[in-house]
Amino acid sequence: MNTYEQHARDEMKIWQQSTFAGPSVWSGVTTGLQKRVNHLIPEKVHQIVTESIKNMIKAVLMGSEFTTDCVLTNASLEERERLVGEKINFYKRAGVVSGAGTGAGGLLLGLADFPILLSLKMKFLFDTATLYGFNVSDYRERLYTLYIFQLAFSSPDRRREVYCLISDWDRHVSELPRDLNLLDWRTLQQQYRDYIDLAKMLQLVPGIGAVVGAYANYKLIDKLAKTAMNAYRMRLLPG
Q1: Residue 168 domain flag
Q2: Of the ranges 7-11, 60-64, 109-113, 193-197, which one carries the lowest mean pLDDT score?
Q3: Distance between CA atoms of residues 217 and 211, nearest Å
Q4: Is 136 domain-assigned?
Q5: Are residues 121 and 113 in contact, defined by beta-carbon separation less than 8 angstroms?
Q6: Whole-model pTM above 0.90?
Q7: What's the longest Cα–Cα distance across the chain?
Q8: C-alpha 193: how far from its chain's center?
Q9: Which domain holds residue 47?
Q10: What span, in angstroms and rounded, lies between the C-alpha atoms of 97 and 107?
């Protein structure tokens, strides 16, 4: 194992430990606040978020919306992650632009950012899988991207469950039903909505929406990027 791979492994170990960490004090505070905020959010907003997630899941499973470049083969981990880093910067900038632009436009444009951000995240995951050498034309690799998505945007308990699944991916994927409609994607919808509601609802507040939208999108994509990199490192690094 070369120096770069050892560095990547060390980062992965730290990430794995954080994955199993319990909820922080701040997490408890935000959870309580989250529940109060949820009651204040118009039902129309909840419906838009839920429908956006449903449509994203359908597009991923059908493989009809997100296209990628050719799978990167015969590359070192260092080269793969250099290219992944470029993708991360690109999608962060795109997220900031979307969040700031829609956040400054009031309620309707603020709501429009939900499906835009989802599309950016999933396109990033497909691009990242390709750069790590995995072919997303295989439905099992598309499923893996959705588990990465859950791992990034779920409660601590659900996060630990998903981690256990992807850490033994070859065995788990062989046990999945061939009919993807039988999979429990409702949990993903609920977990993601609860995870992002507080930050994204502030994006709808006049006067601060643009700043909050830009910052929230940047942090959400950054969270997803770190999760994706380490999830694929688990599959590539020996032992």
Answers
A1: yes
A2: 109-113
A3: 10
A4: yes
A5: no
A6: no
A7: 53
A8: 12
A9: 3-18+43-236
A10: 17
